[in-house]
Design a protein that fits this description.
32% of the residues lie in helices and 32% in strands. It is an alpha+beta fold.
Length: 338
């Protein structure tokens, strides 16, 4: 079939004004890897020109409270009130009873929220050192790194929206839908990632965040000081955020190395012992104590395989000639005595 795909036709498609044959033609064109970057570029341009409607919830709440505060008082402030000691005693007893009742209501509300959350969302979670792969109902594939959590809606996922919540680190391979439905990864770090169909890795942990794009195009929505900034990534881009959400953008020749942990592979390039301690904490929940701060600058380079924390610790010990003592989830690192 001869395809004549233009930006005008794609814009008509996004606004739902194309025929069945045109939609079929665009779907075939968009599945070609050579066309996907242009497709996502036009999509981003379209959404910048025609942003979706957002309800003014904050304004509505302010209007509601203004209406309450402007309501007429139910009593006259200038009416004298005579003290009533028996009423005061009853009020104290009534207040204590109210506190008990309020606490009970709050507890029941919390339990109801937990139960509701359980029924509304399915949670996938990994323990220290565990790597878990799963396929979502829309066909998208997700691999969770150790000490990570993914929450997915139980109902309507892929029909009304494709929105998930991540804590930790995960690699995503998102399927493209015929309806061009977005796939959104929300985090607790005041940023989310929007995609249609692509491959990328999201890291959102206590010490910072990063997104690395392998294929396609994604958009990050980053909140900082009550403002929201949009960052568009192209294949090979890596965006790193500190805990204040200040970003640093870098283009990588081999972005795929950032998801090699899926195969228990570690790619080190002058990786310091300090950075290795972060990996041990993030992936295995290990607290690291180093008796000599000069050791923190020691580096490792190369590609290695480690299926457990013990294998990784043994590797670090041999390559850097260090003595490592492990007790439960804590290790002490020191220089070997000659």
């Amino acid at each position: 079939m001869q395809t004549n795909i233009t930006k005008e036709l794609i814009f008509k498609h996004f606004s739902g004004r194309t025929s069945f044959l045109q939609k079929q033609m665009i779907d075939e064109w968009a599945t070609d890897l050579n066309n996907q970057e242009l497709f996502y570029t036009w999509l981003d341009e379209y959404e910048q020109l025609y942003p979706e409607y957002t309800a003014g919830l904050d304004a509505a709440v302010e209007k509601y409270y203004a209406r309450i505060h402007s309501a007429p008082a139910s009593f006259h402030e200038d009416t004298p009130v005579q003290p009533n000691h028996s009423a005061a005693i009853w009020q104290r007893h009534s207040f204590a009873t109210w506190l008990v009742a309020a606490s009970t209501v709050l507890l029941l509300g919390f339990l109801a929220f937990q139960t509701t959350s359980f029924w509304l969302y399915k949670t996938y979670q990994t323990t220290a050192g565990e790597i878990k792969s799963l396929t979502l109902s829309d066909g998208s594939q997700v691999t969770l790194n150790g000490n990570s959590l993914l929450r997915v809606p139980r109902w309507g996922f892929g029909e009304h929206s494709r929105k998930v919540f991540l804590m930790g680190e995960a690699d995503f391979s998102v399927t493209h839908t015929q309806s061009n439905q977005k796939f959104i990864v929300e985090t607790s770090k005041q940023f989310d990632v929007e995609v249609l169909g692509t491959e990328f890795t999201v890291f959102a942990r206590e010490r910072g965040s990063k997104v690395v794009l392998n294929k396609g195009m994604v958009r990050m929505n980053v909140e900082k000081e009550n403002t929201k900034k949009t960052i568009t990534l192209k294949p090979g881009d890596k965006v790193t955020l500190d805990n204040a959400n200040n970003e640093a953008i870098q283009h990588l020749a081999h972005p795929e190395v950032h998801s090699k942990w899926k195969d228990h592979r570690f790619i080190f390039e002058k990786t310091t012992l300090l950075e290795l301690s972060y990996i041990l904490e993030d992936n295995y929940g290990i607290d690291t104590k180093i008796d000599n701060k000069d050791l923190l600058d020691l580096t490792i380079s190369g590609a290695f395989t480690a299926h457990s924390d013990d294998e990784l610790l043994d590797l670090i010990s041999n390559l850097l000639d260090l003595n490592i003592i492990k007790k439960d989830k804590q290790i002490i690192i020191s220089k070997r005595n000659l």
